[in-house]
Every structure is written in structure tokens, then in C-alpha cells.
Amino acid sequence: MAQILVIDDEEMLRRTLLERAGHTVVEAEDGKHGLAQFEVQRPDLVLTDIIMPNCEGVETIGEMRRQAPDLPIIAMSGGGSRGGDLFLTLAEQLGASATLSKPIRQAELVAAVDAALKPAAGG
Q: CA 62 → CA 16, 65, 73, 78, distances in Å?
């Protein structure tokens, strides 16, 4: 299966349901650590929160997109008072392959990951 970098400041979310789906998960607690892991691991897919300390998800997506234009990236946010939906829209504009609103159901997460990892059909 795929190696997935999960960047989120919530430890319980980082220990995701993706391992149960057979994927290898590499964890990072914020964008700064996520970018460092990205440099070392070069994962097949990145799943990143948007609102985090030490380099938010929007910055993280922008930098990863510069380094790896074809890397599948899924952005997620809990929304709330800091405008999570607006951040998800911005993440899409920066090149996120998909966005998810928290709380995320296991089936929704696995379906988004599978879709993002699927090679583009046709051309």
C-alpha cells in the first residue's frame, strides 16, 4: 500500500484509521515537522490539517506543491471560528487534490485517499 504523511496537531487524528486500511503512516505534529518529514520520506500522499502551530497547512501545501507538483495532497479542517471552510477553499486553490471537513468518518477518509492515489485515467 501507500506511504502517507499525516500532518496534524491532534495526536489522536495522526494515529489514523489509514493504518487499518493497510497504509504506512508517517506522522508530523505541525507544518514545520511535516516539511522535514516530507524531505526525508517523500511520501505517496500527504494528509494535512490547515490550522496548526509552527507553519499552517496552507503554507505547507504551497511549499510541497513547489517541490512536488504531482504529489496528491488532501487538506482537512475542523472549521469553526477561524474560517475552516475558507481555508479549505484556499487549499484547493493552492493545489490540494481534495479537502475534508472534520470530523472525518473512516469511510470518507479512506475513499478520499483511494481516489487521490488512483492514477489519472485517460489524459
A: 24, 5, 10, 20
Note the pLDDT tens digit of each residue in 13-56.
Answer: 787 768 878 899 999 999 999 999 999 999 999 999 998 888 88
Residue at grid coordinates 512536488: 68
Decide if 31 contacts 56 (C-beta within 8 A): yes
Residue 83 and residue 110: Cα distance in Å, rounded?
Answer: 25
pTM: 0.89
- Cβ distance 73 to 95 under 8 Å? yes
Separation of alpha carbons 78 and 19, rounded Å? 22
What is the spatial distance between Cα 72 and Cα 91, in angstroms, rounded to a whole number? 12
